[in-house]
Amino acid sequence: MNAKTGEPDAIVVTAYSPRYDAAFRELMKAEGGHVNDPADRGGETQYGISLRFLKAEGALDADGDGLADYDLDMDGDIDGADIRLLTPGVAKALYHQCFWRPLGAEQLVRPLGEMLFDQAVNGGLKAARKLLQRAINNCAMSTFKRAGPRALLTVDGVIGPRTRELMLWVLQYPALGMPALTAAYREAAKARYRAIAANNPSQRRFLNGWIARANRLGRDGAA
């Protein structure tokens, strides 16, 4: 019921692709349920949705009822109580809206879309795209002597025509292909995790789990 108009809320049905359904299931294996760890920089989380993220995304009032969309207990603010009220369905909608679609993951060849999706959820959209650019550069550098010089990408987190062109070259080059690119992406993700732990000692206890997550990227259907 809309608090302003008194009219019943519209029922909206969202359909997801089988690919996104599978990617979300794999993501939930890594993100788990409710966590409230003081060392977690994102704050309290549920299904991988942090309080910091929910406050940023949930401040909108898209349905016009006078309440923030993710003020789930309707008490006028977004706090830990709203995190605890999150359902898998709400988390799935948020991940699709905020990560899967902005990444264009559905249009990326498998398993790159799934790998970027996992890393975007874990570290942000820009970070996930930068990892792809670093992976492409690493693959290209490994073949320069045989394939001739090519300008490397600027690692800026923007997946534009040049990034797509060089990615296609890596995927089609006989000595590289998808195995080389996915392996390079895993290594780029691990390097990012190690840098976080090195720069912030409070995060070092998460490093082994992060490295394990990076090693699962793109393997056996994992996101």
Tell me the count of domains.
2
Strand line-up of the largest beta sheet: 1-2-3
Number of strands: 3
**Largest beta-sheet characterization:** 3 strands, antiparallel
Protein structure class:
mainly alpha
What fraction of residues sit in β-strands? under 5%
Uncertain segments are none
Terminal CA distance reads 37 Å
Q: Overall 3D geometry?
A: globular
Percent range for helical residues? 40-55%
Overall mean pLDDT score?
86
Q: Mind sketching the topology for me?
A:
Layout: H1 18-31, E1 34-35, E2 45-46, E3 49-50, H2 51-58, H3 80-85, H4 88-103, H5 112-123, H6 125-141, H7 144-147, H8 161-172, H9 177-199, H10 207-216
Antiparallel strand pairs: 1-2, 2-3
Task: Give a quick summary of the entry.
The chain has 223 residues and is mainly alpha-helical. 55% of the residues lie in helices and 3% in strands.
List descriptors.
single chain, 223 residues, mainly alpha, 2 domains, three-stranded antiparallel beta sheet, 3% strand, globular
Please provide a written account of the structure.
The protein has 223 residues and is an all-alpha fold. It has two domains: 18-103, no CATH class; 108-216, no CATH class. Helix content is 55%, strand content 3%. It is built from ten helices and three strands. The chain has helices spanning 18-31, 51-58, 80-85, 88-103, 112-123, 125-141, 144-147, 161-172, 177-199, 207-216; strands at residues 34-35, 45-46, 49-50. It has a three-stranded antiparallel beta sheet with strand order 1-2-3. Helix 6 (125-141) packs across helix 8 (161-172) and helix 9 packs antiparallel against helix 10. The radius of gyration is 20 Å and the shape is globular. The protein starts with 17 loop residues before the first helix and ends in a 7-residue tail after the last helix.
